[in-house]
UniProtKB/TrEMBL annotation:
Gene3D superfamilies the UniProt entry points to: 2.40.50.450, P-loop containing nucleotide triphosphate hydrolases
Presence of the UniProt keyword Chloroplast in the record: no
Family the entry assigns: Belongs to the ABC transporter superfamily.
Species this chain originates from: Rhizobium giardinii
Protein name, entry field: Iron(III) transport system ATP-binding protein
Domain ABC transporter: 4-236
SUPFAM superfamilies according to UniProt: MOP-like, P-loop containing nucleoside triphosphate hydrolases
Record SMART domains: AAA
UniProt keyword annotation of Hydrolase present: no
Length: 352
């Protein structure tokens, strides 16, 4: 069931358009990530949903109630939306317990019990209730901010890059914790982030914005495996882009004849492979590899993941082609090695 409807939302600041007719349908209980480069409009869209900005045109409907557009404009404090920002925005003069219970009636009989339940939900030890924000780590502060946002049982939770200030390991832990807490609370959530891996792992649907327009919207696996264009392909992860001649069911390229999805357009096009689709096998000395091959030009060691630069000589061109391929650290060939290149799964033909 559609819970949040974003219908042709547009917004400009003077002559500069920030959003251009954005359309999205967000299901109840789902987690949606909005990603895009700086200036793409993702924060503006979040602020319009929250009620901090007013759209120039279009409509916003939450659970059947018009929030903006068509003559409606519900103020932010009456929308029933919780927000967790990048810095947590905790009140420095209040204790953890008072920060969490800020929106709860002070004389409510179950106030302390509700605060304790929320602290347990976000995995904060009860002994922290009397501490001040400056006595907490960054991850603990974000847990307090999340508990405070959940205290009033919001219908929708907005997460504005809440993990970006945390260290890498802690960011991953917090992302999993937040996803679990939101799932347990049955809350619908929208995450704005510039971290593509974060978006793909957190959300069950991803919206890609670019220059104020919605480029693609759908499940993360679909966007990762079948991006619309080369900008989206490279934005969502490492991508190998190759020129190819498409015939029904096949793509002819420097890696030979590769399978493509049924119904792909024919003719000259760009195909995409993800690094995990490619395997490199060291050729036996003195033997001729079966299938496309190349020679290792350089290896960039990165621990578990390494980047291998493969040189592919072409009989039809004076200059060779080079492919940058990710490999597992203990499987990497050495510089100068002749390798066979095999591709697993179909190549994706880009629309643009």
């Amino acid at each position: 069931m559609t819970f949040l409807t974003i219908d042709a939302i547009s917004k400009s600041y003077g002559p500069t358009p920030a959003l251009d007719t954005i359309d999205m349908r967000i299901e109840a209980g789902g987690r949606t990530a909005i990603v895009g480069p700086s200036g793409s409009g993702k924060t503006t869209l979040l602020r319009i949903i929250a009620g901090f900005e007013t759209p120039d045109s279009g409509a916003l409907v939450l659970d059947g109630r018009a929030l903006a557009g068509n003559g409606a404009l519900v103020p932010a404090h009456k929308r029933g939306i919780g927000i967790v920002s990048q810095d947590g925005a905790l009140f420095p003069h209040l204790t953890v317990a008072d920060n969490i219970g800020f929106g709860l009636a002070k004389k409510a009989a179950d106030r302390n019990q509700r605060i304790a339940e929320l602290m347990e939900m976000v995995e904060l030890d009860g002994i922290m209730a009397a501490r001040r924000p400056h006595q907490l780590s960054g991850g603990q502060q974000q847990r307090v901010a999340l508990a405070r946002a959940l205290a009033l049982k919001p219908r929708l939770m907005l997460l504005d890059e809440p993990f970006s200030a945390l260290d890498t390991g802690l960011r991953d832990t917090m992302r999993r914790t937040v996803a679990r807490v939101l799932r347990a609370a049955g809350a619908t959530a929208i995450l704005v982030t510039h971290d593509q891996a974060e978006a793909l792992s957190f959300a069950d649907q991803v919206a890609v914005l670019r220059q104020g327009r919605l480029v693609q919207f759908g499940p993360p696996r679909a966007l990762y495996g079948k991006p619309r264009d080369r900008e989206t392909a490279t934005f969502l992860g490492e991508a190998i882009l190759l020129d190819a001649d498409i015939v029904p069911g096949r793509a002819e390229c420097i890696l030979g004849s590769l399978a493509v999805e049924p119904g792909s357009k024919t003719g000259q096009a760009t195909i995409m492979l993800r690094p995990e689709q490619i395997r490199l096998t060291t050729a036996v000395a003195g033997s001729e590899p079966d299938g496309p091959c190349g020679r290792i030009d350089d290896v960039e060691f990165g621990g578990g993941d390494c980047t291998v630069l493969v040189r592919i000589d072409r009989t039809d061109r004076a200059m060779p082609d080079f492919l940058s391929i990710k490999c597992v650290g203990f499987e990497i060939p050495g510089p100068g090695d002749l390798v066979r290149i095999s591709v697993h799964g179909p190549a994706h033909v880009l629309a643009d």
